[in-house]
Each structure stands twice: as C-alpha cells, then as structure tokens.
Design a protein that fits this description.
Belongs to the IF-3 family. It is found in: Cytoplasm. The chain has 190 residues and is an alpha/beta fold. Helices cover 36% and strands 28% of the residues. The strands form two sheets. It has a four-stranded mixed beta sheet. It is elongated and about 80 Å long.
Length: 190
C-alpha cells in the first residue's frame, strides 16, 4: 500500500521501467525497476521515485531517511521565516465617550505597532440599532485619526447587531523616530 506523505520508495514503485539517477547525481540511463532496485540495494541505499509523472518515471538512488530528514528541515525553516499576520479585535460602542475613545485608540495603535491587523467592532444594543450611522461616524473618525499609520482594508460592514471594519498597519509608518529623540542623541554626541 502506497503512503500519501511522500514519494514512493523501493517496492512501492509501480512502473516497469524508470530513468535512474545515481548517488552523485549522474544519469545512469533507463532500467527496469527490479534492476534499479537491485543496484540501490547493492549500495545499501533506497530507490526513490522523485518524478512520478515523467515518462518513464525518474528514480534516484539515495538514503531515504536522510532525504526525508533534510526535507523536514527545509519545511521547518520555511515555516519559521513565514510572516504570520495576527488579527486583534477592539470593540467600541456607538455612544462612546471621548476618554474611552482615546484609550481604545491607543490600544489599537499598540496592536498596529506590533504589526497586527485590527478588527474594529461597533456593538449595537436595543434602540441603537435604529441609528447605525452613529457607529459609522465612530469608525470613520477612527480611520481618519489612524490614517498616517494604518489603512482601511475592509470598509465598515453591518452584520447583525455588529458593524465591522478591518485596518492594517502601513509598512514603515512606525519606523520614523520623533524629532525630540534626534535632538537628545545630538546632545549626547557633544
């Protein structure tokens, strides 16, 4: 029974002939699979089908456990270098006061500085549902306040009792140092 997690090895190879590649990468030519398997076993290695869709399939003589280990290492390195975008959520109310608004805006700024996208949610209750424009005003105000640091990725959208908007940080927007820091560094140099 063939495994689904990788290339076919040794007895799993179903074709009758194959193009054989040696341990050093040299092409040895067309062989029957039984002959190729015998050559691999004489060297104490495995016969691995590396291009099953070719006509005839391409097989290589190599140490399969070492090959599998190297493939896992490459996959792990690729995952490690992959940028994972985190989505944070901040909830507002349509009748939010100025102090609460500024505090929540500061939290959104902190999330954006860390490189996360932020989902802004306006929660409506009861009679507030009759005035969704109040929630839209809060979202538009927030988008305008954050314009130098973030872009609106998804425009405000009403879903049930909530209104959502997604904002993403602008690359390099937080890299600029304030002018006050430059003045203090010049004083230290003198």
């Amino acid at each position: 029974m063939a495994r689904n997690d990788g290339p076919r090895v040794n007895g799993e190879i179903t074709s009758r002939t194959c193009r054989l590649i040696g341990v050093d990468g040299s092409q040895l030519g067309l062989f029957g699979v039984r002959d190729a398997l015998r050559i691999a076993q004489e060297q104490g290695l495995d016969l691995v089908e590396i291009a099953p869709n070719a006509n005839p399939p391409v097989c290589k003589v190599l140490d399969y456990s070492k090959y599998k280990y190297e493939q896992d290492r490459k996959a792990k390195a690729a995952r490690k270098n992959q940028a994972r975008v985190e989505v944070k959520e901040m909830k507002f109310r349509p009748k939010i006061d100025v102090g609460d608004y500024e505090t929540k805006k500061a939290h959104v700024m902190r999330f954006l500085k860390k490189g996360a996208k932020v989902k802004i949610t306006i929660m409506f209750r009861g009679r507030e549902m009759a005035h969704p424009e109040q929630g839209r005003i809060v979202l538009d105000r927030l988008a305008e306040d954050l314009r130098p640091w973030a872009t609106v990725e998804q425009q405000p959208l009403m879903e049930g009792r909530n209104m959502h908007m997604l904002i993403a940080p602008i690359k390099g927007a937080f890299d600029v140092t304030p002018e006050g820091d430059e003045a203090t560094s010049e004083k230290k140099e003198k």
